[in-house]
Specification:
Layout lengths: L1 H40 L3 H4 L14 H7 L23 E15 L9 E12 L2 H12 L6 E3 L2 E10 L2 E3 L8 H9 L6 E7 L15 E4 L1
Antiparallel strand pairs: 1-2, 1-6, 2-4, 3-4, 4-5, 6-7
Length: 218
């Protein structure tokens, strides 16, 4: 009878152990399955990386590069030389400068008349090929002519008005479309070389005032 009791106890213990092992195996398999699922669900480093847009390369021109762009000796241009470089229709001559175009809204009405706002164009000259031309502008400004202006080391040469995508004086166009496009694209950081043409003509009143008769970007 004792042997029968021990046998029953061993059978009961063995069954309980098997049940515990079965539960443990189920839990272990569940944990392993969860870890596998979790690993597959997480994005890889390549997937989770946020794409970064390429930054545009910023280029800046050095003063040396700007000087090279405005190196008058590097171009072969036939010019009619001046003698006194008289402005305001006093003398026929041609010269080279470097600069860029700016625009200003100004009242160009004659004294006593209603306001007449014009989109004035000025060539800001940053470099002269001939010092005599610079001296002629200084002389003219000193005599009170306001068509040209000087601000610091930059000279503003009156170039008529910019209207209907044309550079106009009171008597006609001052540049062709190819030169005008380059002038409009110019800036203090990107000046252009310009051939200025001056002609002989009588003085006149103006609303789109200019002292240069023709501009041609080289």
């Amino acid at each position: 009878m004792a042997n029968d009791g021990n046998s029953a106890w061993h059978q009961e213990a063995s069954g309980s152990l098997k049940a515990v092992l079965a539960v443990f195996v189920v839990i272990l398999l569940g944990a392993l399955g969860y870890l596998v699922w979790l690993q597959n669900a997480q994005p890889t480093s390549e997937q989770s990386a946020t794409p970064v847009a390429d930054k545009p390369q910023q280029t800046s021109q050095s003063s040396e590069e700007l000087e090279q762009e405005c190196e008058f000796d590097s171009v072969n241009v036939n010019l009619k030389p001046g003698v006194t470089y008289g402005l305001g229709g006093q003398e026929e001559f041609e010269t080279l400068v470097c600069g860029y175009l700016i625009q200003k809204e100004e009242n160009m009405a004659f004294e006593g008349e209603e306001a007449l706002i014009k989109n004035r164009a000025y060539l800001v000259i940053t470099k002269f090929a001939e010092s005599k031309f610079k001296e002629a502008i200084d002389k003219q400004i000193g005599e009170g002519n306001s068509v040209n202006k000087a601000e610091g080391n930059n000279y503003q040469l009156g170039c008529g008005c910019l209207e209907d995508n044309k550079l106009l004086s009171d008597t006609g166009e001052l540049s062709d479309q190819a030169s005008l496009a380059k002038l409009l694209a110019s800036s203090s950081a990107k000046p252009v070389m310009v051939k200025l043409v001056f002609e002989v003509h009588p003085g006149r009143g103006c609303t789109c005032c200019n002292l240069v008769d023709r501009l041609e970007v080289i």
